TrEMBL record:
Parts of the chain that traverse the membrane: 142-165, 171-196, 227-248, 254-275, 336-353, 383-400, 412-435, 468-489, 501-522, 528-548
Main location: membrane
Region (Disordered): 562-587
The protein, known as: Major facilitator superfamily (MFS) profile domain-containing protein
Source organism phylogeny: Eukaryota, Fungi, Dikarya, Ascomycota, Pezizomycotina
Source organism superkingdom: Eukaryota
CDD domains from the UniProt entry: MFS_PTR2
Signal peptide region: none
Length: 587
């Protein structure tokens, strides 16, 4: 024993002989060492030593998770196959002088309406989350909003028929349909993403032995990551509808493309209804979101995050306030707010992301198409995602884990911002090449480019735009998938939908910023808008990493779920409601 330790014991007045204390401390150290070196049986929770020494793996998805993924695939098939045509539908005139169109509102009008549609689609998830958490639960809410979605699609199909367009029904029908469709997709989006993760029931790490005899750790966090990678892959498989709908638009009419989307959505709705017995369906947990907003207002008004707590009100206000929550609920809300703060930078990313379905489509129309519809180029975004997700999930990420190279969500999100900046910079270069080519140079689609009354793009091949879409796709894998994962894993059990809706709301903020940039969406200013977005995304990526990189070290602790997570959700909800009734002070 060291001299310092002997002095410490002597000063403490301990009368036990030093030799005996030495023996006891050594025995205790040996016991701790034995615990660390013990072999945990398969299915048991790993020790700290095993967590750091054994390889972590993800588990296979249950069948119910795959069914939810199919539902999302059908919904995204509809959404992208339909909305990917909106730029041409709104921008170009019905007479076909600039290719097939309908409403003839020019570039800025089309960009404004399509951007509003994106904004609306990401505000409405809050409505869906409130209905799900407070009244119906996720499953019934999804079914309800599927019906709403189909009504909007039916209006869009009917008002895009040539006869309806000729009689002036196009614009009114379009506006009504996007409002209803936006409500439908928002109600679905806020609940599908948490629902697919709800299908996975394991909450704690467990040791297992592979067929090759290797002892590994099943890590729920990695499984959730895999779930959202597959979920996002299905989203982009669905978005390949843009391989078909532009040709249907070109050779048949917009109504035929919208009708295909309606039929595919009906298939997804049938999967929801017929697969009911396979889903893990959790009941609503009460007025979680409305209570959360009420508590947030009290926090803001009092400038104190503990102000909504009944105990704080009793201590600082001297009143016995009757509130629909207890102190534990406010602690969970604070945890949710900490999780949400990483989303503050996302609006800039969504501005960049939104370019591929708006201004990129217009840019493609300013080049020589060689028989390729300008809105067909959008497919290179989902194709790149479909190629890179399996590559990352089966090769890159497992190799990094074997080499003990951490690639935490904060790092992935930062990288996503930087890759998105590369996409914008490349788009600016392509725009410069368009302006440098004839016959119209800085004014694409001018009269000099018309042949038989149809305007053609400048002498730049449309395929040169491909890398911009690939960059956007790769950035989504890092930024968007990691955002979905972060919104689920960092949210307290009672606030999954709330945090998910807050994450989706950042997309609405991004659309609002993009709406403000609409006046810059004209030639030749749009090239400099691309440059500005590239710089903004790159700088945001760097600042984001500097501000939040410390959360990487806390990742495992933040992923640790509450002790009551292993209980069925209904008893949890009931026990919390009972707890609130008992702990809420009475007036």
């Amino acid at each position: 024993m060291s001299t310092e330790r002997e002095v410490e014991l002597a000063q403490s007045g301990n009368n036990v002989p030093i030799e005996e204390i030495v023996v006891n401390e050594k025995a205790a150290m040996d016991v701790d060492l034995d615990k660390e070196n013990q072999v945990t049986p398969d299915g048991g929770e790993p020790t700290l030593h095993e967590k750091t020494s054994l390889r972590h793996i993800a588990e296979n998805l249950p069948i119910s998770a795959w069914l939810v993924a199919v539902v999302e695939l059908c919904e995204r098939f509809t959404y992208y196959g339909m909305s990917g045509l909106f730029q041409n539908y709104v921008q170009r005139p019905l007479d076909g002088s600039q290719g097939r169109g309908a409403l003839g509102m020019d570039h800025q009008g089309a960009t404004g309406l399509t951007t509003f549609f994106q904004f609306w689609c990401y505000v409405t998830p809050i409505i869906g989350a409130i209905i799900a958490d407070q009244y119906l639960g996720k499953y019934k809410t999804i079914v309800l909003f599927c019906i709403v979605y189909m009504v909007g699609l039916l209006i869009l199909v009917c008002t895009s028929i040539p006869g309806a367009l000729e009689h002036g029904s196009g614009l009114g029908g379009f506006i009504v349909s996007i409002l209803i469709i936006g409500l439908g997709t928002g109600g679905i989006k806020s609940n599908v993403a948490p629902l697919i993760a709800d299908q996975y029931k394991r909450k704690k790490m467990a040791v297992t032995t592979t067929k090759k005899g290797e002892r590994v750790i099943i890590d729920p966090a990695l499984t959730i990551q895999r779930i959202y990678m597959i979920f996002y892959g299905c989203i982009n498989l669905g978005s390949l509808s843009l391989l078909a709908t532009p040709y249907m638009e070109l050779y048949v009419g917009f109504w035929s493309a919208y009708l295909l989307c309606l039929c595919m959505f009906m298939v997804g709705t049938l999967v929801v209804v017929l697969g009911r017995k396979y889903y893990v369906v959790r009941p609503p947990q009460g007025s979680i979101i409305t209570d959360a907003f009420r508590a947030l207002w009290i926090m803001i008004r009092n400038r104190n995050m503990d102000a909504p707590k009944p105990s704080w009100q009793a201590e600082h206000r001297g009143i016995q306030a009757s509130m629909p929550w207890d102190d534990h609920f406010i602690d969970e809300l604070k945890r949710a707010l900490v999780a949400c703060r990483v989303f503050a930078f996302y609006p800039i990313y969504w501005v960049v992301y939104g370019q591929f379905s708006g201004n990129f489509v217009t840019q493609a129309g300013q080049m020589e198409g060689h028989g390729i519809p300008n809105d067909l180029m959008q497919n290179f975004d989902p194709i790149s995602i479909i190629v890179f997700i399996p590559l990352l999930e089966t090769c890159v990420y497992p190799l990094m884990r074997r080499l003990r190279i951490p690639f935490r969500p904060i790092t992935r999100i930062s990288l996503g911002f930087i890759v998105a900046a590369l996409a914008m910079m490349y788009a600016a270069i392509v725009q410069h090449l368009i302006y440098s080519a004839g016959p119209c140079y800085g004014q694409p689609l001018c009269a000099a480019s018309e042949i038989d009354g149809t305007a053609y793009g400048n002498q730049v091949h449309i395929a040169i735009q491909t890398p911009a879409y690939v960059f956007i796709g790769v950035s989504e894998i890092f930024a968007s998938v990691s955002g979905l994962e972060y919104a689920y894993t960092k949210a307290p059990p009672s606030m999954k939908s709330f945090v998910q809706s807050m994450y989706l709301l950042t997309n609405a903020f991004g659309s609002a910023i993009a709406e403000a940039l609409t006046p810059a969406a004209f030639d030749p200013a749009i090239m400099w808008m691309f440059v500005g977005l590239a710089c903004a995304s790159f700088v945001c990526g760097l600042i984001f990493f500097m501000v939040f990189h410390h959360l990487n070290a806390k990742e495992d602790d933040m992923n640790a779920l509450d002790a009551d997570d292993d209980m069925p959700e209904a008893p949890i909800a009931e026990s919390r409601r009972e707890s609130r009734r008992e702990s809420a002070p009475k007036i």
